[in-house]
């Protein structure tokens, strides 16, 4: 007979075990010469044995096995991680779905993880950081006008010798003739004019108008 106030076994509520459905795990990898693998693991079971089984399937030695770990959506998974720690939960109907996801799909009970090495993981992290950071805008190039090309010319006269000049495309023929008179010490009173390829040049014209003129060509100077 039970004493007053004692709790009998029949009065204790039975605890219903938490649902622990099987999860299908697809393991991919970019490690050279590896093959994918599909395994089934319960929601609460850790992934250490899965990693070891995958490495054994690839024929890895212990050193290589120790260097391999899993990632899920870019996040590193340690051996103590479970499918539940990936964000999978079971709803009131026993269906598995990602936490905070309001849409259920039968494929939610299947997850894809990747087997990587630290080298691959660090490379992915750098690439992800590069994509997050805005690319620096290129510095504007200095707005510098290109210096006009200067041309070497030779002014040739019959009686006063030659004069050499360097002038720009906007230099007028009148200015070239006037400068030549002073340099060659042509007597005052002479009225010069220039010829190029036998054609008389308009004093108001410029060097830019001589399309066929090349560096070092000759302009003949004559006098009226």
TrEMBL record:
Name of the protein in question: Rad60/SUMO-like domain-containing protein
Basic and acidic residues biased stretches: 126-135
Pfam families the UniProt entry points to: Rad60-SLD
Domain of life: Eukaryota
Bias kind Acidic residues: ranges: 136-145
Domain Rad60/SUMO-like: residue ranges: 152-221
Signal peptide segment: none
Native organism: Diplodia seriata
